[in-house]
Specification:
Elements (H helix, E strand, L loop, with lengths): L2 H5 L1 E5 L15 E4 L11 E7 L7 H12 L3 E5 L4 H5 L4 H4 L4 E3 L4 E3 L10 E4 L6 H6 L10 H4 L8 E4 L4 E3 L3 E6 L4 E3 L11 E4 L15 H13 L7 H5 L28 E9 L2
Parallel strand pairs: 1-2, 1-3, 3-4, 4-12
Antiparallel strand pairs: 5-9, 6-11, 7-8, 9-13, 10-13, 12-13
């Protein structure tokens, strides 16, 4: 591979029993099936893990931190139940950037369009207007409830079998689960290099990539990673309009619902978080 291609390589990790891997698609995406080392990441612009189900070593975390500090990018996607269900320890990396994937699930509170309640149709979930602008759906002025409900401007996406995120004030929440669903025990994306965290690794699988406007969402994410064209709106970043966290009883026994204490710095109920530079 020549130098130009190396500098824009996207590397999809498969060494931690990830739920999803990449065998084709982007021709500049490669798979890493071995332990993460600095040598393996030479020339890699973006490292991705999609639902890791094994623990990372201290040495691997150190490599990833240095990789990020060197101006490279990381995309982490988990699933409902968060870290505990996946038996991984990725939070040891994420918590340093003020983001955590909660041990919960997001469900809708009404039936609409998709059969499973954990396949949540979100039509008013963009928290930062720059995301809409970059996708071609400009939302001028301050984002308010009226503009959120304008389907001609709002991005609609399907959030599948995902968890919420706890996003502290040092990070920026940019996607929200919306008003048609309740998190089952918490928020959903989160920016160095750049770091993004998504609470669902099933949202952008091949089967659902072209559902609603999921492709536009992931295109914006990759555009944010690979270019400097996207600058998050600072007003929206500092004061996102997020609903209070609402917890539903767990009737299946798969998730705890033992209560939740509010933290003043916590931006509740987001689904995609970015650490601030």
């Amino acid at each position: 591979m020549d130098k130009e291609n190396l500098q824009s390589t996207i590397l999809c990790n498969t060494y931690k029993k990830e739920l999803f891997t990449t065998n084709n698609g982007y021709k500049s995406i490669q798979s890493l099936k071995e332990e993460i080392t600095s040598e393996k990441l030479i020339g890699v612009k973006l490292w991705i893990t999609t639902g890791p189900r094994e623990k990372f070593t201290a040495a691997e975390f150190e490599v990833l931190k240095k990789y990020l500090d060197s101006g490279n990018d990381i995309l982490v996607m988990l699933r409902e139940g968060g870290e505990s269900r996946s038996d991984t320890n990725i939070h040891l990396l994420l918590e340093e950037y003020a983001i955590m994937v909660n041990n919960d699930a997001v469900v809708r509170n009404m039936y609409y369009k998709y059969f499973h309640p954990k396949e949540v149709l979100v039509s008013n979930g963009v928290l930062n207007r720059e995301i809409s602008r970059a996708s071609g759906k400009a939302m001028p002025g301050i984002i308010d409830e009226e503009s959120r409900g304008n389907n001609a401007q709002a991005l609609t996406f399907v959030y599948r079998f995902g968890a919420t995120l706890s996003v502290m004030k040092q990070a920026v929440a940019v996607l929200f689960a919306g008003s048609v669903c309740f998190p089952l025990n918490r928020t959903i994306l989160s920016q160095g290099g750049k770091l993004a965290v998504l609470g669902s690794c099933r949202t952008f699988t091949d089967q659902y990539l072209d559902k609603e406007e999921n492709r536009k969402i992931i295109d914006v994410v990759f555009q944010w990673f690979m270019t400097e064209d996207i600058q998050l709106n600072q007003t929206d970043a500092e004061d996102p309009e997020i609903s209070d966290y609402m917890m539903l009883p767990d009737t299946t026994g798969s998730h705890s619902c033992s209560g939740w204490s509010r933290t003043p710095e916590l931006k509740k109920s987001s689904c995609l978080g970015l650490p601030e530079c």
